[in-house]
Write a structure and sequence with these properties.
Shape of chain B: globular
Largest sheet of chain B: none
Strand content of chain B: under 5%
Number of domains of chain A: 1
Largest sheet of chain A: none
Distance between the termini of chain B: 26 Å
Radius of gyration of chain A: 28 Å
Oligomer: heterodimer
Structural class of chain B: mainly alpha
Structural class of chain A: mainly alpha
Number of strands of chain B: 0
Number of helices of chain A: 3
Helix content of chain A: over 70%
Strand content of chain A: under 5%
Order of helices and strands of chain A: HHH
Chain lengths: 72, 242
């Protein structure tokens, strides 16, 4: 326990050393999480859209497709 | 042009997906060993005592602040002159990471300065030029998103990145050119490192760990931006169809 307390105390510089390490961990974790969150959201959005595209074409029948609309 | 745009990102995504697991693994191993060496193995400094351990998070953050900015400047040249389609994405994906590292360098430096210099902050050349670097990053991020047309935003940000690059050598050599409380370089200096190997190794491990951390995030962010571009294309297809 004493060794642990000595380690935490950092030769009385603990008040400066640990906030430095703590902030580094927080900022780097935030970078990772914001990056992954955005990537996941976009991947899901893309999967959703790619699923809906053929469905849209079929739903209204041939007349809804741009090609048919242009030729009629 | 359109062919280049869609051909290169596909190749890029294949490459990114192949190297990403290795980048993640190397980042974790390097940061874990760097933290272990820095906190448990490296000795206390004969003048600074245990406060010197702040160096292992402060110095790599400051290296990254300059390294990431240099990468943005290189990407800006590739974008402005050769119009490489991935260069703008690399620059805009790098800027928030570089800003975060610069912020960390400033705050951990302040936390180190208080016990060692007796002050949180001085307006000397090193500290001021790094603060300017932080604002350059913020300006780059603001300009990137300031226009409706993403290409115009990327171009304006690229010009800012190149004009602001003059600040990078000023940061590097500020400790030699002007009087400052900040200590001079002890690793990247002519004549080799003056720092003891027991302190150099954890610093190298952390520096490489930060670098791979940046590369990992950069690849993930470019991947995410490429999907975003794909979504915008789908949007315009849908508008054409409607």
């Amino acid at each position: 326990m004493d060794a642990f307390r000595t380690f935490i105390d950092m030769g009385s510089y603990g008040d400066y050393v640990w906030p430095s390490y703590g902030l580094t961990v927080v900022i780097m974790a935030w970078l990772v999480m914001s990056t992954l969150r955005r990537l996941r959201a976009r991947e899901q959005e893309l999967a959703r859209r790619q699923g809906e595209f053929p469905a849209r074409r079929n739903r209204g029948g041939a007349i809804d497709t741009p090609k048919d609309a242009a030729s009629s | 042009m359109a062919f280049d745009y869609f051909a290169n990102p596909a190749r890029f995504l294949r490459l990114a997906n192949a190297v990403l697991p290795w980048c993640v693994g190397a980042t974790v191993i390097l940061l874990a060993s760097g933290l272990y060496l820095g906190l448990f193995v490296a000795p206390a400094d004969y003048q600074q005592g245990e406060s010197v351990r702040i160096m292992y998070v402060h110095v790599p953050a400051a290296w990254m602040a300059m390294f990431v900015y240099t990468n943005i400047a290189i990407a800006s040249i590739l974008s402005l002159i050769w119009r490489h389609p991935l260069a703008d994405l690399a620059a805009s994906a790098s800027a928030p990471i570089g800003a975060a590292f610069t912020f960390l360098a400033l705050v951990t430096g302040s936390l180190w300065g208080k016990p060692m210099w007796g002050t949180w902050w001085v307006w000397d050349a090193r500290l001021t030029s790094v603060l300017i670097l932080f604002f350059l990053y913020l300006g780059h991020m603001a300009l990137t998103h300031a226009f409706d047309n993403p290409a115009r935003g990327a171009k304006a940000a690229a010009v800012l990145a190149l004009v602001g690059f003059v600040n990078v050598p000023i940061i590097k050599f500020s400790v030699d050119w002007w009087n400052t409380l900040h200590q001079p370089a002890s690793v990247f200096r002519a004549g080799g490192p003056t720092i003891h190997p027991d302190m150099l190794w954890p610093l190298i491990a952390m520096g490489l760990g930060y670098t791979l951390f940046y590369i990992t995030l950069l690849l993930l962010r470019i991947k995410s931006d490429l999907i975003g571009a794909r979504l915008r294309t789908l949007d315009s297809l849908r508008q054409d169809a409607a």
